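pls design
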């Protein structure tokens, strides 16, 4: 089963240059809703293995990227394609809603 990758300020630009869509989960250890959506993001990493790159970015440890994208509330999930943001989810959503957003980018 595929795992999410850990994304940092230093690896971010390289990760979003991927040929395939990239989902970035902006989260923090202390965030309750982040813990609710975390397992959904992990499951999707397995289901979309080879089709979508799925990673998590800890906003406390990586404030540069969080600031660059104006992340004010977490969890925020950004979907990138060709290095550009093509979709955004703020807060907890259902697994099917998130899967539909990923499918739309394939």
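designed seq:
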């Amino acid at each position: 089963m595929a795992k999410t990758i850990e994304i940092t300020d230093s690896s971010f630009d390289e990760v979003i240059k991927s040929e395939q869509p990239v989902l970035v989960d902006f989260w923090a250890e202390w965030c309750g809703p982040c813990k609710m959506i975390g397992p959904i993001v992990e499951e999707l990493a397995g289901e979309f293995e080879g089709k979508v790159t799925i990673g998590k970015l800890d906003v406390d440890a990586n404030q540069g990227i969080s600031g660059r994208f104006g992340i004010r509330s977490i969890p925020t999930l950004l979907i990138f394609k060709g290095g550009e943001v093509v979709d955004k989810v703020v807060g907890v959503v259902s697994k099917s809603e998130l899967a539909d957003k990923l499918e739309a980018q394939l």
